[in-house]
Each structure stands twice: as C-alpha cells, then as structure tokens.
C-alpha cells in the first residue's frame, strides 16, 4: 500500500490540518515529518475547535496512530502541554509515537532565536522565536540533541557542555544575555524522559513495516512550499524541508513508497511574517478577506497578510511537489464578492513571467497580472457535491484548476470537518 503526502501549496495556513483530519479516518498512520511548534493546524469537529502546534492532526482520529517523525524539532515542554490539554478534553493520546532520532529544542536555542531576531531589526526574517532555526542549524552542524539522548545522562551532559561553550559566549558577549547553565539545561531535558519513554520508537522501521502490511500512511507537512528552505522565498522561509521530498527524509519512508501528493491551497492567498507577496492586498479587500476568513495565526495570533489567488505559485507548487491532487480550501470566504481576481502571471519591469522567476530579486519586484472572474452571492456552506455549488463558484474552481496544473479533488466550503465538497476520491 503506497503512502500519501499532504503539503501546503502556498505560504502555510492553507488548511492542511482539516485535510489531514478528513483523511485521517481512512488511514492507519498520520506522520508529521518537518517543522516544530512554529506553525499550527486548526481542526473543527462539531462544536469543538482544536489548535494543534506540534502534534500531528491524526491525534484526533480514533484508531489512527499519530507519529512525530525524525525530521521534526521538538519543544518537549510544548509537547507535554499539548498532550495534557487534549487529555483534559477526553482525547486518547496513548497512541502517539515519537522518533528517537527527532531533535529537541533546548532552552539556549529559544533564547538565541529571540535575541537574534531583535538584533536584526528591520532585516528581521519574521521568525516565531521558538528556537526552530537554531535547532535545525545545530542538526546540520552535528551538535544537536536528539530524543534518544534523554535516556543517557552522560552523553546528554557532554553534548550540552560542548554546545554551551560557544553559545554561552555568544549570548553573553554579543547579545548581553545570561546563558543557561549546563546543569539547568540538562535537568530540564531529563525531566521529560520518563513521560516520553513509552512513546519513543524507531518510527522509520515501524512505518515501513506498516506499508509492507498494506496499511495506509499519511505524511503531513508543517509550513508550506513557499516556506521550504530550498524551494521557498529564501531567506524568508522556515528552516526545514516542507515539500514532498522532505516527507521521505523526515520520516524514513523511501520515495518509491509515495504514490499520491495532495497539495492544499486556499481559494485566495495568505502569508505570515516578512518577505515578498505579489498579490498582497493593503486595502479594504485585504481586510475583508482577513476578517471573513478569520486570518490570524494559530500559533502566534498574528494577523495574516491576505491577497488574491496566485496561480503562478500554484503551478510552482504542483511542479516542485509532484502534486497529483489539490484541495482548495475556504472557497466560502469569497462568497459575496462581485468580481474575484486571480493572478495568472507576473510583470517584472515590463517582462511577463508565467512561471516563478528564478531570480529572487525579480520575485521581489513582481507585479501581479490579474484575470477577473465573476463572483457569487449564494451560501455554499451546505454544498457536498460539485453540482451543489452555484455556477460562478464552479466556474471559479474550474478556472483555478486549469491554471494550477493538477486536478482539484476536494473543496472546503466551511471550517467544520464535514463542510467539504468531494470531487474525486482522495483515499
């Protein structure tokens, strides 16, 4: 049985959590393969809303095994807080598996992340200050701390001592901040060992064995294509691989086991943090999308920057990820608009670009070339079949599908789990 990957096709916050949750009842494992608690997924089930930051969305689906893969960086305090919050609401979290090879976020990396961003001032990248970037840097520098280190105090102490020899000096002498003590850091990390022990596993082995048994595995990305450290709008990106390729390195599943890649895209576009955004609306239309779509960060609460749908980005995401199916979310937010513009190309100093400019400076100066489509006024929240949508809404979806390069297989018409129009089966 092949694996399926879900990725964000824009700058994040597209509704991956809902898509994963909808599919969760039809899969056996849901794996988070990148990122940390620097992004969140909101899942609405009936009258209950769940904001997940570090946990895979599959934690909410009975019978599904949620997995935090080796590509994730884990703030242990946040993990425990999220688990306890779900337990208080009656959710069974005993099925969670945590890769022994996942890296943990120590206190000194949280401190470094915050002071570095403040130091950058107007050149800031828009980081959430949660230690994600410094922890991924430690991973690549081969000085990181992994989950398995929590069960060998001697090794853990040696690693913390080694790292703090340098980072302690940086915090104290460059940023004038008191560095955490070695013993304080070690004790904090060790305090989680007993709680985590039952869930720590060789998750790469278990996932491959599950596929061999014919079970279904869903790989869930944090962040999105345009935030990928290689393929995003660098340097205004995250520090991990948020594209379909990252699903393999972040989970231990080989690419030959992946057959379907589902790209999640909003019917418009949003972005949080700094960086270029060609279709951004700094007027009443942007404020309308923000208010109607409740566009505020799940993790940070920051208002999201809003703009019209960008087909250039959608085509790019389809190509980079090998998207087989798109899920178009929040179509209902566009209800009531007389005309709905869609960006079909960019104008860069008089030259038309139908694909993403290879030069980042060109992307910074890109101006959207719009095609306007007629809007609709009918409430679409009760639609469950494509034919239930008003004619202009159907025309919008078809136009976006043709521009994006892959079929649209599901459409979100409201925040709830069942407020979805299924066009093609995604299982």
Would you mind describing this structure in some detail?
It is a single chain. This protein has 3 domains: 3-99 and 200-261, Adenylosuccinate Synthetase, Chain A, domain 1, CATH 3.40.440; 103-193, Orthogonal Bundle (Adenylosuccinate Synthetase, subunit A, domain 2), CATH 1.10.300; 265-422, Adenylosuccinate Synthetase, subunit A, domain 3 (Adenylosuccinate Synthetase, Chain A, domain 3). Helix content is 32%, strand content 21%. The chain has helices at residues 16-24, 76-88, 107-120, 132-140, 153-174, 182-190, 193-196, 203-212, 244-249, 284-292, 311-321, 360-364, 391-404, and strands spanning 3-8, 29-32, 41-45, 48-52, 65-68, 73-74, 97-99, 103-104, 200-201, 217-220, 258-266, 269-271, 305-307, 309-310, 325-329, 339-348, 351-353, 367-374, 407-412, 420-422. The strands form 5 sheets. Strands 9-7-5-2-10-1-11-15-19-20 form a 10-stranded mixed β-sheet, sandwiched between helices. Strands 14, 16, 17 and 18 form a 4-stranded mixed β-sheet that branches. It has a two-stranded antiparallel ribbon with strand order 3-4. α3 (107-120) crosses α4 and α3 (107-120) runs parallel beside α5. The longest helix has 22 residues, at 153-174.
């Amino acid at each position: 049985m092949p694996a399926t990957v879900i990725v964000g096709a824009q700058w994040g916050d597209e509704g991956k959590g809902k898509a994963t949750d909808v599919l969760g009842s039809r899969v056996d494992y849901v794996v988070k393969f990148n990122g940390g608690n620097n992004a969140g997924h909101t899942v609405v089930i009936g009258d209950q809303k769940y904001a997940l930051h570090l946990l895979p969305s599959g934690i909410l689906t009975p019978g599904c095994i949620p997995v935090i893969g080796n590509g994730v960086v884990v703030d242990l305090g946040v993990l425990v807080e999220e688990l306890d919050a779900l337990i208080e609401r009656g959710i069974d979290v005993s099925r969670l598996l945590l890769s022994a090879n996942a890296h943990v976020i120590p206190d000194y990396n949280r401190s470094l992340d915050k002071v570095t961003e403040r130091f950058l001032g107007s050149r800031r990248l828009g980081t959430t200050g949660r230690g994600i970037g410094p922890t991924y840097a430690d991973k690549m520098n081969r000085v990181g701390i992994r989950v398995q280190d929590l069960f060998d105090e001697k090794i853990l102490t040696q690693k913390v001592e080694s790292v703090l020899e340098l980072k302690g000096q940086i915090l104290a002498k460059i940023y004038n901040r008191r560095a955490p003590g070695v013993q304080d850091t070690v004790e904090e990390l060790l305090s989680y060992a007993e709680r985590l022990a039952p869930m720590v596993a060789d998750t790469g082995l278990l996932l491959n064995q599950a596929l061999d048994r014919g079970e279904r595995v869903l790989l869930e990305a944090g962040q999105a294509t345009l935030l990928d450290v290689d393929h995003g709008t660098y340097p205004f990106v995250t520090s991990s691989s948020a594209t379909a390729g990252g699903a393999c390195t972040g989970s231990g599943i080989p690419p030959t086991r992946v057959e379907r890649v589902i790209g999640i895209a909003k019917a418009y576009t949003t972005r949080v943090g700094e960086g270029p955004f060609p279709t951004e609306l700094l007027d009443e239309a942007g404020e309308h999308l923000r208010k109607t779509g409740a566009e505020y960060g799940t993790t940070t609460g920051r208002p999201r920057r809003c703009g019209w749908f960008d087909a250039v980005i959608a085509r790019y995401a389809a190509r980079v990820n090998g998207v087989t199916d798109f899920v178009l979310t929040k179509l209902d937010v566009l209800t009531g608009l007389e005309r709905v513009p869609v960006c079909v190309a960019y104008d860069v100093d008089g030259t038309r670009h139908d694909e993403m400019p290879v030069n980042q400076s060109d992307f910074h100066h890109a101006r959207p070339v719009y095609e306007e489509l007629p809007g609709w006024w009918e409430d679409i929240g009760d639609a469950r079949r494509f034919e239930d949508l008003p004619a202009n809404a159907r025309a919008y979806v078809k136009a976006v599908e043709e521009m994006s390069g892959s079929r649209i297989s599901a459409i979100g018409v409201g925040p709830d789990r069942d407020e979805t129009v299924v066009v093609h089966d995604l299982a």
